[in-house]
Amino acid sequence: MGIRVFIADDHALMRQGIRQILSWDKELEVVGEAGNGQDTLTTTLQLVPDILLLDMNMPGMNGIEVLRKLNAAHSKTRVIMLTINDCDYYVVEMFKEGVQGYLLKGLEPQELLAAIHCVAAGKSYMSQDLRDRFACRGQLPAQDDLTQIARELCREEREYRLTVREMEVLHCIARGMSNKMMAQTLFVSDATIRNHLTSIYRKLDVEDRTQALIYALRHRLIAEGDGGDFPLIAEAESSFAADTCH
Question: Model-level pTM?
Fold first, then answer.
């Protein structure tokens, strides 16, 4: 019996490319696809594929929310995140939430096929680039169970970790949003935003937005080079680069 795979990505071209790659392997069967979070959740629960290839950023409901709802429904589908997001924070959070694989878009087709077979066999898989990074820091556990990564990475900083909502606020800061704009974007009150900012500054031990972004760059909460999408990152990156040259 083959491995049944469901593809969830908001870009039709990406879904088509993945389908093409999976067609090379006769043991893999694509049973469906979706371009938004709600359709992904509904159809995955209906079809119960062996593997869900899940993009993190999708309209309506993001990959994190889809994963949590699948977990709440006790879904037997094993989830592989397939994303451009290589920030340490999200890698950790996804393994904490129970994904069995984390892949970066841009990987070689053969690695995608290998990852699907690995996860379908009951093991965990992480993109080689990420494994190399964590291994260089001595943060990659020796055992095959990569869900232990979250515990290893958070062992000394557990109480200082930002929540998912605080990470959303941090990304809003990077986009140059005012408190009012953040409140409108996240559908919360101005007072709630102020509370989140206070919590972020306390946890990161910083005093203002620029310092928070510098911290985020240093600790890979936000990837470098995102200045086009995040205007304030350019300023933070300049300060970060000047700091690291001394």
Answer: 0.65
